[in-house]
Amino acid sequence: MPVPAPNLYPPFNIVRLSHVTYRVTDLAASRAFYVDTLGLQVTEENDSEIHLRAMEERGHHCIVLEQAGTADVGVLGFKLFDEPDLDKAEAFFRARGLPAEWVERPHMGRTLRTRDPWGIPLEFYVKMDRLPPIHQQYKLYRGVKPLRIDHFNMFSADVDASVAFYNDMGFRVTEYTEDAETGRVWAAWMHRKGGVHDVAFTNGLGPRLHHTAFWVPTPLNIIDLLDLMATTGYVANIERGPGRHGISNAFFLYVRDPDGHRIEIYCSDYQTVDPDLEAIRWDLKDPQRQTLWGAPAPRSWFEEGSLFEGAAPQDSALKAQPIIAP
Amino acid sequence: MPVPAPNLYPPFNIVRLSHVTYRVTDLAASRAFYVDTLGLQVTEENDSEIHLRAMEERGHHCIVLEQAGTADVGVLGFKLFDEPDLDKAEAFFRARGLPAEWVERPHMGRTLRTRDPWGIPLEFYVKMDRLPPIHQQYKLYRGVKPLRIDHFNMFSADVDASVAFYNDMGFRVTEYTEDAETGRVWAAWMHRKGGVHDVAFTNGLGPRLHHTAFWVPTPLNIIDLLDLMATTGYVANIERGPGRHGISNAFFLYVRDPDGHRIEIYCSDYQTVDPDLEAIRWDLKDPQRQTLWGAPAPRSWFEEGSLFEGAAPQDSALKAQPIIAP
Amino acid sequence: MPVPAPNLYPPFNIVRLSHVTYRVTDLAASRAFYVDTLGLQVTEENDSEIHLRAMEERGHHCIVLEQAGTADVGVLGFKLFDEPDLDKAEAFFRARGLPAEWVERPHMGRTLRTRDPWGIPLEFYVKMDRLPPIHQQYKLYRGVKPLRIDHFNMFSADVDASVAFYNDMGFRVTEYTEDAETGRVWAAWMHRKGGVHDVAFTNGLGPRLHHTAFWVPTPLNIIDLLDLMATTGYVANIERGPGRHGISNAFFLYVRDPDGHRIEIYCSDYQTVDPDLEAIRWDLKDPQRQTLWGAPAPRSWFEEGSLFEGAAPQDSALKAQPIIAP
Amino acid sequence: MPVPAPNLYPPFNIVRLSHVTYRVTDLAASRAFYVDTLGLQVTEENDSEIHLRAMEERGHHCIVLEQAGTADVGVLGFKLFDEPDLDKAEAFFRARGLPAEWVERPHMGRTLRTRDPWGIPLEFYVKMDRLPPIHQQYKLYRGVKPLRIDHFNMFSADVDASVAFYNDMGFRVTEYTEDAETGRVWAAWMHRKGGVHDVAFTNGLGPRLHHTAFWVPTPLNIIDLLDLMATTGYVANIERGPGRHGISNAFFLYVRDPDGHRIEIYCSDYQTVDPDLEAIRWDLKDPQRQTLWGAPAPRSWFEEGSLFEGAAPQDSALKAQPIIAP
């Protein structure tokens, strides 16, 4: 079996992915994209930073936009279950010789900053400032009506190794793509919170962030966003979709922010809370793997991604290629 | 605070609600309703029983229909995380002087049969036969396109006590209704699997089952079901809705099966995996509590429910009344 | 046959309903309702008048809101096909001893002002100022995303007579409700533009305007409006729905403006351009006539309406009653 | 101005497009596609012919499938307003030296068979057998829930000339594409029934039928069809879409039947009944003309089409090319 058995008793309890820090080169342009177009809500902003949340989130932020000279990704954040999990996490990373330091982060309690073995910057916390619910303030809904952050997808130069490491942390594989020739895993989707994924890994020059995804109510919201972007100067930012993924069965759209950071708009995958959920295998050459309806993804989608601050990407040894749009 | 703090370290680990056994007086009529109208899939049937699953479920059944002389509810089933949780559950119930026996159930592994303190028949298991996925066999989708069982709602003669007992088992309150005059909880919604609820309790003659709910993709599927039921002889089985709940923010419809068992069709509540999620309080007299758009529920919805086999219901001491449609 | 045969060669060619003038007692409150909540676009406004159009309309206005001491309806407007039709219309009304005068109306060419035999103020024109299309300026879409004015529904004290008169003008009956006891028509739906109706008549104290309807893209837009109104102080303005009409098969919602003028939000009826389209008959006592799903309309919906300026309503002789919600 | 002014007083009154006869090489395969997959209703069938209607149509058929040795198109049918229009049509075609004969067609009254100047086989009638309404028999809805035939799109070797001829017959241009270099019309959309088109012409090897379109309720029905086709062996029959057209603003999908005849699934264009509706001009090189969201159509979509029985296609003199997907 090419993917590891689920680790039902992980060393510390990760509840879900939580937030991402995007470093952007023009904060006003990014604000126009994330706030005015996608419809995320500003929870705090100044000249150098904007904190955003989606409509059903009560934590203070799911995205932090930071004005920077170069566009990259500052950190991926995860929420842990309880205070002792923070100390257990520290022990887990230290035992593997990985960095682990306690940092101050606004709006967050004790925060452990670390990196995975390939340099992806991670932070773990238990408490983030909680805000009053706004999910029933319907006059605030705009754009694609983003409800919550759903997942991160990362390029990995060694997906088998990435899966093994995140499996150790308790992420469970729900679906994966195998390269039939080598028997290696080409991509994998892994969850903590009961959907198809909190994190996914795709073979390629890595580590890089492929995309961050937001959950929306229905496919019609995605069509609304396409109509809006197409008529407000963002037509070139539409990269792929709309479509139905074979993997995850979700309805999707990929768009690029003004710095090229990729955002997926995503809805209607399925519930995965059963610990005995069988992972679904896909063949790399199956044309319906990417898009159930048969349309391949464009080359940019396979090749472009956001660098993580402080992590130099490496080429992947696995050279197998999926079907790419001509 | 009228609802207990979440029990983050429960005595055994319940993953989610799993299934219900409905005893029905005309199996063919029930089949026409659940299979041909709602669109559930038959996984096994004979002259006296039909097993059904929803489209994204891989467990063998979420409903068992049993031919019986009298319509009632046989049992509510819950899936546990791992084998040791079964033994811990047995100890939990025995310690409280409640029945706990190991029973044989087709398609299920070790199964613990018990009752809650008011007599609601419960069963717990870890392993149920797993079936191949059908969520991408779109030709099988029919009716309301039910994706998965979502929750049980029960009448309780003492909601505060029911909440305390299920809280002990690890169910966490997400929203509740308070009777302002007495300070007592009139209704509560409690989850394990990360949605607004796996179980809910409503003040009234109890224990009785108020309804079982199924999750569907979008509100348009609910409109499709209304059109179908209205033109296939089921117009009198439409009890309440469609509408948006104030509580849970879900889009809903309530229909009655041929024996009067109530089924809710439900979609678009919100994610509740955060252990520090603040429960939302509603006042019993708030007209938007039931339906955000202001329409009250009919009297039948407040008064009628399904008896549990072997459990005699008692009147509630709390006499406070919500707004009822004239 | 209780409804007249269609008049395929009418005396003048009415293209479609066009606009309504609502006299309102608080122009700012009406603006908040029609512009900020429903999402109509302002094409001109000053302290005493606001002109509005819907998203796919190129004519200057479909609603004129006029500040007035008393709320009523100023006029119902209809677009004619060509200039000679205006003179033919004048001859038609004069021949029946009805008023017919040429009036100046801003943004409109030659305009014939008249009244039907029961005093409903009507105006006919061929040319109205044409504005650039905005249907692909998606950033302007708001509220319920109203696309176009769809129809007027009027109380009539003698529906048979109203149908006969409007049939003479070329409106064709698509559906009607008969009182089985008397054989009289209780309500009728009549079109010019190829949908189920441009005008409808309902038995009751008349003439009064029952409602003006706007066409929207899908039922989900109606659900969005309900969510918005329910959380912005308009919950009491939601009168009936959402639902599927038996008659017309349309999905509907009825709301009341700040003066009580009734607006229907409407979508998905059917095409009626065939001149040999058979009118569909409904019995007044059929519960699915009003709402296919069985829910009756509230009493206010049957009894309340807007007065036409200068037209005193009369009681209807036909006393038959539909099913009314308790 | 590159398109002619609308002919408000045409020589005979065409109500709408009505039906198409497709000659197919495997009637059973075509039935599986049109009936089981798209969801059209069989109104009559035998070993050599199947008649179909869509859900809101009351005329006997909108498609006739005929078993044949070679796949092509037998005829395009149009409904006229009244009996005298048939004789006026005969005179119109005879005056232009075009064929005009009275033919017997099952289920239809007097039927005039003719060809346009480029050989497209046309038939005109007033009366077709009328069937009971089924639009409220919701148990019959399947597949994409087709409501009615919407339009024909034809390749023309001289679009300017085709537009002039159909304009003479009273079709009015709603939108058109101009080749900026030559000032010639590259494509045009023309209506009779009040939508964006009953007929359209596209520059290319012609005459050939580019596609027949069906109107469906909402974009979600199109997504449902994609999911169904993708999982029932029709993934290769999905040619283009889903997307939003720039021209017409409609939401679309193009699929191919088992013989390669192209069917468009279409919804949400706009009302065009105003005789003074201004035609919208698009530049051939505008990437949003084809798809508002920017995705170009594939080469097959520009090059492939169905031959008309008995009409040899000619190359177009106009060589200008739109943007084609690589």
Automatic annotation (TrEMBL), chains A, B, C, D:
Keyword match Iron: yes
**Keyword Lipoprotein among record annotations:** no
Q: Which Pfam families match?
A: Glyoxalase
Q: Which CDD domains match?
A: HPCD_C_class_II (cd07256), HPCD_N_class_II (cd07266)
Q: Which GO terms describe its molecular function?
A: dioxygenase activity; ferrous iron binding; lactoylglutathione lyase activity
> Any idea which UniProt keywords this protein has?
Aromatic hydrocarbons catabolism, Dioxygenase, Iron, Metal-binding, Oxidoreductase
Q: Which cofactor does it need?
A: Fe(2+)
Q: Where is the VOC domain?
A: 16-127, 148-268
Q: Which domain of life is it from?
A: Bacteria
Per the similarity annotation, which family is this?
Belongs to the extradiol ring-cleavage dioxygenase family.
What is the protein name given in its UniProt record? Catechol 2,3-dioxygenase
